[in-house]
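pinned: reference chain
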Amino acid sequence: MNKKVLFVSYCILAFLGLSVSAQQQAIPLNDTTAVPLVSESPLFTNYNYIYKNRLDSIEKVVPMPYNEYVQKYIEVYSGRKDMMGRMLGLSDYYFPIFEKALKSLNIPDEIKYLPIIESSMNPYAVSRVGATGLWQFMFGTAKGYGLNMDNFVDERKDPIQASYAAAAYFRDAYEELGDWLLAIAAYNCGMGAVKRAVEKSNSNDFWEVRRFLPLETRNYVPAFIAAVYVMKCSDKHDIKSQRASYARITDTIQVNKFISIPTLAQVLNMNEEELCSLNPSYKKKIVNGTELSPKRVVLPKVSLADFTKVYELLNNDMDTDMNIVLAANEGKLVLKKKKAVQDQPAYFYHKVSPGQNLGLIADKYHVEVQDLKVWNKLNGTTIVPGQKLKVYHSQAEKNGLRAAKS
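pinned: its structure tokens
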């Protein structure tokens, strides 16, 4: 009898294991859920004073306290030695780009660590809801912050352009919320969700607000703090930097003609994949430069002779369709609606009625107040009856930067 029970139990467990495996295989390979889930109430029986002292010693603007939630993610990330070793290697190339963009708007340097938990510093990363690039911008928010998406380019994948857009978002979020941890939370779930949580908690302290936030956001901030700690203290956890596969020292040129990246790689006698990795925003491996809108190309440090070859390439006309078509919303959640809305313009106008404010209008169209301000170039929140406000269709379908990512 006991053997039969054990055999049935084994079969059930085996079936469950196969089911889990099948579910895991069903997840798209390019989906990015970089923040692992941990227990909502982690036990804090082994308070680690070493972790606390190391965190306290890190020079920072963003407050990074040590607590049970942060410790759990320190354990997770310090255990992922291969992943964090790759992050250290990639940081040699990407961090100077992030730092320059953040510094331009006086955003704390620590924010440069966010792409580790956003995308594992992969410019090609795409989440299951369409958040794209190193900084994981949704389509509507990307447009609101000046990023361009068309049939040739997706600037969400451009490390430089997307970093300046992220810096602008954090400037606006901090001005709105007055706290860096809340601004980081807003980057994950949208400013509206954070402001509602602040009202419910009657506090501006993230750790008090935390319980009123979506599950992913509750984990997102501790994961960010842990990622900063592990990157700063990698040597204490036997994590070795893995050199990135592409060049750390680069040159940048502006081109005013259409050129082929594979042809450019051939001229420079370099690996095509490496050159594409340095220029990830070009969808068709074509740099669509024009006289009116020259485009940036990032190259490994090259010799004068190589520049001569590039110059010769730029003098040759490229045979390709040069018509530029603005991209529609590429978020996967709206694909079912694509047929119904494909003929709609990108945005519409709302006429302000007496008694309306930006908050009421944002709620009506399921967007953020900050989005309305960006789209309409408003410096404050004052609006008047009869005023027309621009509202983007794509953003009306998706609330906030990544509110529904989970």
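why pinned: The beta strands are 250-255, 258-260, 286-288, 295-300, 347-351, 388-392. The longest strand covers residues 250-255.
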